[in-house]
């Protein structure tokens, strides 16, 4: 069952961050756009975990939001199970919505503090009209059980739970509409490592049990490596490299991927010498010309400053880098 | 052997609440030697920040040091009058907080904040202070420091601000720097840079560092020794390599196993069941006993003290109690 | 910056026009000016004649148009009641109101900020509780009653201070008549200023306290303490300055409402300012004066808003013009 | 959800008693006294018809000759004795205070409710939708702020007098007052709610609801509203005190409830005329009542503000 | 110089406060009490009004209807009078002033409506030709001031100020009269300072300087007197009179005012807008009688007015021509009889109606209305009280928009005709503008109109009595009382109450 569940093509999202009209007139400025993601394309197969990594502001959440319908893309196509997402049609979106869900980063903000846990978990059931009456509370109890809490916890309020438990509640809510696809936007980055391990294990177990498909978003390379089959690396809104999980770490193609890997603290104390990381992410409103990574790239070439690299197929997947297309670069 | 720069003895921090007194730190003892970087790890709420705050005398009421002693270079500082303690702060103990975005007063330029701090502690002219400030900014890696010093904090990016914060903590040349999660809010690529700067400068000036973090990787790369806190109690202290590679306390061992790494291949992460108890629900005996797979009856009865081990390691676990102390206790 | 000012100005014009329109629309319901302009012997025909002469029988929009057209040239016509040019009347009364507003504003600000800071720093102490409670009396009794009580105690019983009026005044320049330079003028100012300022003081005090408590919990205050800065520097240099950013905004608006609230104080103390003028005009349906007064209030607010924004601009380097964040 | 709410909850009272806010209340003597006083006045006002010895709003029951009876002294003409004396119309001051408090509280509560409903609705919409609706509403709020509240109330009162047919003016006066005071207060609520809504709407629980396609109205009412009510409650409490005082102030300017059915403010305005003539009780008792009411409500508001601020606990 | 120092030596300043300021200093612009009161100190009239209501000499030393022509009034002008600017006053100035006063937009025009022509026969004689016999015309002159023609022409104020012109007239803030005081400083509604005019024809007053201030709040006004900041307070709230009398250092003087307070009602319309009755209850004589039996005037006097009023049943003060004692008399309230009458009229369960009442015009106006509400409630007339400011109240009467209202009426001419013209005559032309009862009786109208040209004063008085009989019979007015004036002052000051509430500082003496 390796068919494609979700495919994304040319996904672009710009935010209008212009100053007010009058300022623009006086200061003789044009409109300003922040390109959060640009021309992103990838596919996720049924039952697999696809991960997106990237630093803060690289556009991970923007992609996630577009996929679950919270944001409308400026350009590009999102196809879910072969069906194109149509933001204009409420009815079509509604039937699609049942099939995907999202888990958020902040377990403290993702549960309404004024609602009881059972109401939180039951909300999708109510909204989609899946069950009624006593069935609902049975189902809620079952879901709580499933994520490792007890049915009795349903009458409590979120503040009575720890962060890890809350994330379990969030997962239970996401599962309550029986989705096939779950977008997880940094599901563990607010959690402690010991709890993170529980949640990651739980996610895996659920995937095995229900054949779920995950889009996992994280900035933590080791989490991504542990969870994902394939990984996409984002830099300034562009997908600079997509590769098989294991191979990305052993054989990174894009210099940025390499740099990211080098920046990860070495817990194993292997004493490997790393390439020192330089610079910071540029302002996405005025991204550098050509390859946006060029100001920080240790292997920068002239062409990098001028031209945006095209997608190239590599040994491990795809990447966007002039090094890979220019023969004499290495 | 030189006396340690900082010596914490049986530190107990309590919060009197209406439901009884919460003991947030329970007989925590450790030393930091001259020039040493002591890592302090633990899950959220373990008491890492409180330890730092207690040392620098900035516990927020109603929190208070209930007992124990804090010695700075042989001088007891936990019972100093306020004004004396204030002179120590910044001058002899510097502090770096987690969030660089909120640690700087948005209404003052970087220069104003630096000069104010320098002149609070050192009898230098405004001009001299400014010169020092520029030099310091330069040292922490802010490009064009002489020009940028007159900018306001919001003109700097997150990574740059954290450098400013480090400069502020170091500007009166303290002997000890307490860094409370200095990189948690930053991206991996920047995190590495900041840690490097902090380490280098402290080494340069011979300052000792107490590095608080929950990121084992950072500790592994940076610290000489590491102290593991659990529920307000020290679980284990020892040289970094020993603790990471051969943890003795079951909690530390579990913790290490639950961290996904770039090299490990296991399908599932080791998982410590449950979560750290809240302060009002710390079980009798060893605080870790409900989650410990090796717990035996004594663990449920008595609270273990730090037990000295080989190589200067200490572990608070009944598993490692020598017959001798058993005898003396019995 | 230029854009900001331009936008403010444009907004101000709209505000002024709206106020004018609303005010003008409302006047038609306040009463019939003719009734109070003529004696009881005047015949109905004569009344109708006067109404026509004054243009009161024209369609509302025509009247409004005429009003705006003349108002932009600074001509608000002649007071129906006092038969003087409205502009002159208002300008001669304005200094009294502004002096009263300024002094009570300054009192309110000084004590409000002082008490606010004190109660924030000493939260829970009995002195702060007392200050908090006592100051609440300022907002728990209607202004007019406070004024009358002050008169009773300090003017009638103790005979320390005058009960009404502005005392002796002297001219500064051509038209600004001040009571601040004479002894009786200053004495006369005390009771009205307290009456007017009490309410604002309480508001400012509460605001400063709340804001200060908020600021005192911020990371940069903790960091400032961790750097060993003195309490003074932390509390006043860092915390207070940050507190003032939003406080300035609110206080600016308070100043405007002080001017509006002076209606009551001026009536109670027979203070010869624009507020009392307005209230008398309302009774007499002196439409030109009412209209001009409302325009003046709108102008004052607009100007204060502008100044506050500029001040905000000056104090807060983040140049957050969007004050919505600063107000609560 | 309804079925869940209906479940019997044995520990509800106990749990409420145990909550942080209840605890902070128990620990604050000022708040307890303030709550006691407010409650006393509010109950006395509600049950005025049963408590009050006389009905001052029934003109037929008044005897003009009872006027100006001092407290606890027999009237020189009629020989009647009144606990707190009588006013210039022969109304028993005690009863009139009770009935007056009823009017004041009614005006206060309704004005606050009106301002709240208006402010919260507009604030929620502005905060949630953003864009031009937000800009428009906030500009309107600016203009509204530009217009001093007393002036606004004065003018609204004037207009209403013009619009409402004479026969209904009397009956409508109180509603006009409510609208006038309410209209001058809604901006505060709108601003606070708008700000809080903008914060809440970006929180992930709202996004979670949006992901499942919940209707915006439902999100606003069921999700966001309960979470922005904290500060609103604080403003409302203080706003109640302000509205009661505003009503009193307006009565001084001659716009207010009819003097045949006086509110506390109207009573004070009437009593103020007798400050120098020796009938101190007509001013004193209503003023004390108003002071006690406004002060205690204000104190409660202050306490609530601190108690609801999690950072101050 | 010697006299000057003499004056300085005995210089007495009086600080005088009252509720409202003069609206203007133009002598003819406004026919309004406070304006006239202040202007009487600066300007003078041909004839004056004494404290007892009788006419006194002013700038005219003699006056009377011409023996040759009953349509002409002859005035003998006082000699040796100079204006404040030093120019002498002549008959020309009188002619000019009367012409100015009778030409719109003068506020005094209505009082001179019957004047056809004013001429100066010689330097000291002025003839005023009326359109017909006008035996009472001289009564209309007590507030018509004489100003300088030359000064008026010089300053472009030949006519009274015109509101519509949109410019301030010179005469609004500048004066040149012949009066006993010269205006030296004026800040409208704040402070006006008058200095004795040493060129005045009469004896120098004891008060050489008058500082006139406005204090509109009653409590503040009283406080200012108590704290010694003012010497004379003119509008003393009735409730404070008794207390002030007992205060050391304060004296209160009282006197009847030429102002009568009464209720009236729409007695002609088919139905009442504000009533739940199907017809117009006020049209029923029984109802009107019942109301007059229900009102307890003594209680109003005792409690509402604190004893400071003259209860009366007739809508005119005693010193007005036409008043009789029996008109004024009233019996005790009789609720039983009133209830019977109500039942007879067909309202055994009463009816409801709205009472319109000013709340800032007369002494305790709102309280009086409130008291009436209570009294009528006892005969089941359920009254809604609508009390509002004067500028909203009076148009209701003028526009016939009220069913039931309170009105106060002064009679500046001291003659009943004034009452009939405005309150009784059918509303038409210049008649009946305050006839809110909509009462219309052509017979009576004819009689009223005939009054103005009757020169036989006896016959005229008989006619007046006849009219009054009819009016009282019809109960057009439900009268309450005549107002009593009270002035409070420092106890070494003597000042009598003026019936038109126009005290003169020239009459002030010191103990
Ligand atoms: N509503 C918005 N308006 C304007 N800019 C936006 C908006 N939402 C996101 N952005 C910008 O788009 C870029 C990508 O944001 P996004 O939230 O997708 O990043 P991210 O990779 O999820 O980062 P993080 O790790 O911090 O969550 C950022 O520069 C961000 O500032
Ligand atoms: N004011 C307080 N009242 C009660 N308990 C408190 C208070 N402040 C802190 N604590 C408790 O003290 C314990 C230690 O807190 P501390 O901030 O030191 O944790 P930490 O290890 O720094 O965690 P983190 O990684 O989240 O920063 C926590 O359980 C916390 O709940
Ligand atoms: Mg994100
Ligand atoms: Mg911490
Ligand atoms: Ni605030």
CATH class of chain D: Mainly Alpha
Q: What's the gyration radius of chain D in Å?
A: 23 Å
CATH topology of chain D: MetI-like fold
- Count up the domains of chain A: 2
Class based on secondary structure composition and strand pairing of chain D: mainly alpha
The CATH architecture term of the largest domain in chain A is 3-Layer(aba) Sandwich
Subcellular location (chain D): Cell membrane
GO biological process, one term (chain D): transmembrane transport
GO cellular component, one term (chain D): plasma membrane
Membrane topology (chain D): Multi-pass membrane protein
How does this structure look, described?
Chain B is an alpha/beta fold and 330 residues long. Chain B has twelve helices and twelve strands. Chain B has a domain of 88 residues. Chain C has a domain of 179 residues: MetI-like (MetI-like fold, Orthogonal Bundle), CATH 1.10.3720.10. In chain C, 73% of the residues lie in helices and 2% in strands. Chain C has twelve helices and two strands. In chain C, strand 1 and strand 2 form a beta hairpin. In chain C, helix 5 runs antiparallel to helix 6, helix 7 crosses helix 10 and helix 10 packs parallel to helix 11. Chain C starts with a helix and ends in a 13-residue tail after the last helix. Chain D is mainly alpha-helical and 313 residues long. Chain D has a single domain, classed as MetI-like fold, CATH 1.10.3720.10. At the C-E interface, helix 2, helix 3, helix 5, helix 7 and helix 10 of C face helix 5 and helix 12 of E. Bound molecules: adenosine-5'-triphosphate (ATP) (2 copies), magnesium ion (2 copies) and nickel (II) ion (NI). The site of nickel (II) ion has 4 residues of chain C, from helix 8.
């Amino acid at each position: 069952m390796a068919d494609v569940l979700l495919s994304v093509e040319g996904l672009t999202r710009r935010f209008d961050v212009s100053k007010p009209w009058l300022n623009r007139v006086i200061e003789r400025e044009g409109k300003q756009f922040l390109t959060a993601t640009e021309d992103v394309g990838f596919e996720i197969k049924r039952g697999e975990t696809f991960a997106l990594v990237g630093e803060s502001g690289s556009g991970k959440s923007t992609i996630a939001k577009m996929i679950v319908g919270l944001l409308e893309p400026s350009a590009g196509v999102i196809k879910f199970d072969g069906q194109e997402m149509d933001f204009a049609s409420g009815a079509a979106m509604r039937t699609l919505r049942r099939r995907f869900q999202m888990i958020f980063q902040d377990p403290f903000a993702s549960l309404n503090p004024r609602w009881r846990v059972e109401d939180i978990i039951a909300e999708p059931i109510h909204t989609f009209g899946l069950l009624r009456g006593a069935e609902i509370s049975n189902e809620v109890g079952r879901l709580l059980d499933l994520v490792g809490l007890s049915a009795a916890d349903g009458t409590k309020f979120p503040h009575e739970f720890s962060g890890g438990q809350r994330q379990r509640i969030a997962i239970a809510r996401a599962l309550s509409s029986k989705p096939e696809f779950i977008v997880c936007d940094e599901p563990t980055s607010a959690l402690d490592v010991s709890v993170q391990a529980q949640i990651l294990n739980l996610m895996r177990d659920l995937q095995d049990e229900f054949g779920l498909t995950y889009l996992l978003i994280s900035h933590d390379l080791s989490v991504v490596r542990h969870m994902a089959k394939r990984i996409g690396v984002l830099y300034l809104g562009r997908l600079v490299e997509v590769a098989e999980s294991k191979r990305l770490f052993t054989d990174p193609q894009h210099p940025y991927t390499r740099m990211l890997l080098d920046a990860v603290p070495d817990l194993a104390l292997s004493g490997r010498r790393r390439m020192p990381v330089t610079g910071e992410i540029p302002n996405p409103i005025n991204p550098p010309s050509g390859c946006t990574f060029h100001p920080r790239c240790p292997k920068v070439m002239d062409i990098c400053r001028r031209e945006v690299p095209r997608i190239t197929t590599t040994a491990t997947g795809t990447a966007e880098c002039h090094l890979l297309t220019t023969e004499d670069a290495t | 052997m030189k006396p340690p720069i900082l010596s914490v003895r049986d530190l107990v921090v309590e919060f009197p609440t209406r439901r009884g007194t919460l003991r947030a730190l329970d007989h925590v003892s450790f030393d930091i030697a001259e020039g040493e970087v002591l890592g302090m790890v633990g899950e959220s709420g373990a008491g890492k920040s409180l330890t730092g705050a207690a040392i620098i005398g900035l516990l927020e009421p109603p929190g208070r040091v209930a007992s124990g002693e804090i010695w700075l270079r042989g001088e007891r500082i936990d019972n100093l009058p306020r004004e004396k303690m204030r002179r120590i702060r910044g001058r002899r103990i510097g502090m770096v907080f987690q969030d660089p975005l909120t640690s700087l007063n948005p209404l003052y330029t970087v220069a104003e904040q630096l000069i104010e701090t320098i002149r609070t502690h050192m009898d230098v002219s405004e001009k001299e202070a400014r010169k020092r400030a520029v030099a310091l900014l330069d040292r922490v890696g802010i490009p064009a420091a002489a020009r940028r010093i007159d900018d306001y904090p919001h003109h700097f990016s997150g990574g740059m601000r954290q450098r400013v914060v480090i400069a502020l903590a170091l500007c009166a040349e303290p002997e000890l720097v307490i860094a409370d999660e200095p990189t948690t809010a930053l991206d991996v690529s920047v995190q590495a840079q900041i840690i490097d700067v902090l380490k280098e400068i402290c080494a340069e000036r011979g300052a000792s560092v107490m590095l608080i973090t929950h990121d084992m990787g950072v500790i592994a790369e940076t610290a000489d020794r590491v102290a593991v806190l659990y529920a307000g109690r020290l679980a284990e202290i020892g040289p970094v390599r020993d603790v990471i590679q051969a943890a003795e306390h079951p909690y530390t061992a579990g913790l290490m196993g639950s961290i996904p790494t770039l090299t490990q291949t296991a399908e599932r992460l080791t998982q410590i069941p449950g979560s750290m108890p809240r302060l009002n629900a710390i079980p009798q005996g060893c605080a870790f006993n409900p989650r410990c797979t090796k717990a035996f009856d004594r663990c449920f009865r008595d609270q273990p003290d730090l037990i000295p081990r080989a190589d200067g390691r200490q572990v608070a676990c009944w598993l490692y109690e020598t017959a001798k102390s058993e005898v003396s206790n019995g | 910056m230029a854009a900001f000012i331009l936008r403010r100005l444009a907004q101000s014009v709209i505000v002024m026009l709206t106020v004018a329109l609303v005010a003008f629309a409302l006047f038609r319901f306040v009463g019939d000016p003719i009734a109070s302009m003529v004696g009881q012997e005047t015949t109905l025909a004569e009344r109708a004649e006067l109404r026509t002469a004054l243009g009161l029988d024209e369609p509302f929009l025509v009247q409004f148009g005429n009003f705006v057209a003349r108002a932009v040239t600074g001509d608000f016509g002649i007071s129906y009641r006092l038969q003087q040019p409205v502009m002159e009347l208002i300008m001669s009364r304005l200094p009294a109101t502004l002096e009263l507003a300024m002094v009570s504003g300054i009192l309110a600000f000084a004590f409000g900020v002082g008490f606010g800071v004190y109660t924030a720093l000493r939260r829970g102490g009995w002195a702060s509780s007392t200050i908090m409670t006592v100051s609440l009396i300022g907002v728990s009794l209607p202004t007019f009653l406070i004024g009358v009580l002050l008169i009773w105690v300090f003017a009638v019983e103790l005979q320390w201070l005058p009960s009404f009026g502005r005392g002796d005044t002297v001219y500064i320049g051509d038209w600004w008549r001040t009571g601040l330079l004479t002894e009786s003028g200053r004495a006369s100012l005390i009771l009205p200023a307290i009456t007017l300022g009490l309410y604002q003081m309480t508001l400012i005090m509460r605001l400063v306290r709340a804001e200060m408590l908020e600021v005192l919990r911020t990371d940069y205050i903790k960091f400032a303490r961790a750097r060993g800065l003195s309490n003074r520097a932390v509390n006043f240099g860092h915390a207070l300055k940050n507190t003032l950013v939003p406080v300035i905004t609110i206080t600016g608006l308070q100043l405007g409402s002080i001017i509006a609230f002076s209606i009551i104080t001026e009536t109670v103390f027979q203070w010869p300012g624009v507020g009392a003028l307005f209230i008398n005009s309302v009774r007499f349906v002196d439409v030109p004066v009412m209209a001009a007064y409302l325009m003046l209030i709108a102008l004052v607010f607009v100007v204060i808003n502008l100044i506050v924004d500029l001040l905000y601009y000056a104090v807060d380097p983040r140049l957050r013009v969007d004050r919505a964040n600063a107000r609560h | 959800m309804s079925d869940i709410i209906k479940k019997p909850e044995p520990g509800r009272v106990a749990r409420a008693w145990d909550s942080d806010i209840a605890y902070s209340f128990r620990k604050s003597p000022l708040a307890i006294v303030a709550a006691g006083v407010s409650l006393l006045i509010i109950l006395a006002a509600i049950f005025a018809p049963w408590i009050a010895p006389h009905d001052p709003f029934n003109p037929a029951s008044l005897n003009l000759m009872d006027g100006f009876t001092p407290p606890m002294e027999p009237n020189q003409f009629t020989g009647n004795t009144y606990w707190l004396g009588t006013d210039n119309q022969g109304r028993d001051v005690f009863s009139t205070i009770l009935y007056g408090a009823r009017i004041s509280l009614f005006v206060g509560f309704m004005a606050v409710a009106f301002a709240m409903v208006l402010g919260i609705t507009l604030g929620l919409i502005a905060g949630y939708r953003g864009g031009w609706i937000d800009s428009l509403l906030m500009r309107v709020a600016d203009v509204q702020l530009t217009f001093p509240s007393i002036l606004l109330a004065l003018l609204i009162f004037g207009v209403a007098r013009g619009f409402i047919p004479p026969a209904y003016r009397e009956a409508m006066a109180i509603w006009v007052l409510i609208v006038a005071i309410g209209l001058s207060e809604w901006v505060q609520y709108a601003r606070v709610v708008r700000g809080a809504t903008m914060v809440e709407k970006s929180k992930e629980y709202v996004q979670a609801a949006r992901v499942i396609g919940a209707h915006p109205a439902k999100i606003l009412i069921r999700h966001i509203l309960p979470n922005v009510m904290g500060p609103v409650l604080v403003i409302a409490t203080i706003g109640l005190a302000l509205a009661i005082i505003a009503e009193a102030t307006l009565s001084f300017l001659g716009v207010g409830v009819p003097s045949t059915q006086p509110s506390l403010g109207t009573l004070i305005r009437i009593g103020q005329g007798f400050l120098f003539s020796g009938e101190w009780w007509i001013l004193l008792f209503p003023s004390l009542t108003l002071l006690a009411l406004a002060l205690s409500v204000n104190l409660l508001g202050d306490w609530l503000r601190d108690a609801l601020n999690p950072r101050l606990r | 110089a010697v006299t000057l120092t003499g004056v300085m030596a005995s210089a007495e300043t009086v600080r005088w406060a009252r509720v409202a300021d003069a609206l203007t200093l133009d002598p003819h612009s406004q026919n309004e009490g406070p304006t006239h009161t202040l202007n009487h100190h600066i300007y003078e009239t041909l004839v004056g009004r004494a404290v007892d209501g009788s006419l006194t000499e002013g700038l005219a030393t003699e006056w009377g209807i011409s023996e040759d022509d009953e349509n002409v009034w002859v005035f003998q002008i006082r000699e040796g009078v100079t204006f404040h600017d030093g120019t002498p006053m002549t008959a020309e100035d009188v002619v000019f002033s009367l012409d100015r006063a009778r030409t719109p937009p003068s506020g005094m025009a209505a009082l001179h409506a019957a004047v056809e022509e004013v001429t100066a026969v010689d330097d000291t004689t002025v003839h005023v030709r009326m359109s017909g016999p006008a035996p009472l015309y001289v009564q209309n002159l007590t507030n018509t001031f004489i100003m300088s023609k030359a000064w008026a022409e010089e300053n472009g104020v030949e006519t009274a100020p015109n509101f519509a012109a949109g410019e301030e007239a010179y005469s609004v803030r500048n004066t040149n009269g012949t009066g006993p005081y010269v205006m030296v400083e004026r800040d409208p509604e704040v402070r006006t300072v008058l200095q004795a005019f040493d060129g005045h024809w009469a004896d120098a007053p004891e008060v050489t300087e008058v500082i006139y201030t406005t204090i509109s709040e009653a409590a503040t006004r009283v406080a200012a007197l108590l704290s010694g900041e003012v010497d004379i307070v003119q509008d003393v709230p009735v409730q404070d009179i008794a207390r002030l009398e007992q205060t050391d250092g304060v004296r209160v003087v009282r006197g009847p005012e030429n102002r009568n307070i009464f209720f009236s009602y729409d007695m002609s319309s088919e139905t009442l807008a504000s009533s739940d009755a199907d017809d117009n209850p006020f049209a029923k004589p029984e109802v009107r009688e019942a109301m007059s039996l229900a009102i307890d005037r003594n209680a109003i006097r005792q409690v509402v007015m604190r004893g400071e009023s003259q209860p009366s049943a007739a809508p005119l003060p005693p010193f007005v021509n036409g008043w009789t004692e029996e008109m004024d008399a009233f019996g005790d309230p009789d609720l039983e009889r009133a209830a019977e009458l109500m039942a007879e009229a067909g309202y055994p369960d009463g009816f409801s109606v709205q009472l319109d009442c000013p709340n800032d015009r007369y002494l305790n106006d709102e309280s009086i209305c409130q008291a009436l509400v209570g009294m009528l409630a006892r005969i089941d007339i359920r009254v809604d009280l609508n009390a509002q400011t004067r500028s909203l109240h009076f148009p209701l009467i003028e526009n016939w928009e009220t069913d039931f209202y309170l009105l106060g009426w002064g009679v500046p001419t001291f003659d009943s005709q004034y009452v009939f013209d405005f309150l009784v005559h059918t509303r038409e032309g210049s008649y009946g503008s305050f006839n809110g009862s909509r009462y219309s009786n052509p017979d009576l109208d004819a009689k009223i109109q005939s009054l103005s040209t009757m020169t036989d004063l006896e016959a005229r008085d008989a006619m007046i009595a006849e009219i009054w009989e009819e009016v009282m019979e019809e109960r057009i007015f439900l009268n309450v009382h005549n107002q009593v004036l009270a002035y409070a002052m420092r106890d070494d000051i003597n000042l009598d109450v003026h019936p038109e509430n126009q005290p003169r500082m020239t009459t002030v003496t010191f103990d």
